[in-house]
Q: What sequence folds into this?
């Protein structure tokens, strides 16, 4: 049981390059999330998904796209990277309630991807 | 909009001393409350959470937190710090409205423990 895994662990990009970050979970969770972590700002939600084929915007979605073609995978894409996207990116997952009602279920986090955009 | 405030971005204590990390939330309706810990170069791990019921919540590694509705606070404590407690700690909430278990994080408090 690997939990939540993220690929790659580190990446350096040049401004304007594109890349995709992969998140995978083996807990059969419905909900998945992408966060970015910046010093002094905690974690901020970029996008999230509440099921296969669904995605929604979070607090800081600009410059990112996501896809959830399979329940266990959640991809985060940067089409044209900018230095402001230098950050540590975390994926998380949790089980959800039918209808999207709020619960206190724990979110499980991956180990993170450290991205530098030059 | 809901917000979470952690007082003190850096806290330093001696080994064996009391650890107190402060967290306040902004809503009039108490949300679900969480404390997460992040060790260097790792992801976040749940320490404890408050949903309903007893206001003193015990978590892993000897940590506990007390929910005080009148103060809109959820401060984290540990009676005696260990060197291994050095990490960054995040307070987070899930508002009862809005759905989909979206977490809102505080800015984090980095705890240093010195001999």
A:
């Amino acid at each position: 049981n690997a939990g939540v895994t993220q690929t790659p662990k580190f990446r350096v990009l040049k401004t304007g390059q594109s890349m995709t970050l992969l998140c995978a979970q083996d807990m059969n969770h419905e909900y998945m999330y992408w966060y970015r972590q910046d010093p002094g700002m905690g974690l901020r939600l970029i996008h999230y998904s509440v099921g296969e084929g669904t995605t929604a915007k979070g607090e800081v979605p600009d410059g990112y796209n996501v896809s959830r073609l399979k329940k266990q995978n959640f991809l985060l894409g940067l089409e044209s990277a900018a230095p402001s996207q230098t950050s540590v990116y975390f994926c998380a997952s949790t089980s959800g309630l039918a209808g999207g009602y709020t619960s206190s279920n724990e979110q499980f986090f991956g180990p993170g991807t450290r991205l530098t955009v030059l | 909009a809901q917000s979470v405030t952690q007082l003190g971005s850096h806290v330093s204590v001696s080994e064996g001393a009391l650890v107190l990390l402060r967290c306040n939330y902004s809503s009039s309706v108490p949300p679900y409350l969480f404390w997460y810990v992040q060790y260097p170069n790792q992801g976040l791990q749940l320490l404890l959470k408050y949903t309903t019921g007893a206001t003193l919540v015990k978590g892993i590694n000897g940590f506990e937190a007390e929910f005080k509705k009148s103060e809109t606070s959820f401060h984290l404590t540990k009676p005696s710090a260990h060197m291994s407690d050095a990490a960054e700690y995040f307070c987070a909430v899930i508002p009862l409205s809005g759905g989909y278990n979206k977490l809102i994080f505080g800015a984090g408090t980095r705890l240093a423990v010195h001999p």
About this structure: Chain B touches chain A at residues 4, 9, 32, 34, 36, 41-46, 49, 51, 90, 92, 94-103, 105-108 (CB under 8 Å). Residues 6 and 101 of chain B are 21 Å apart (CA to CA).
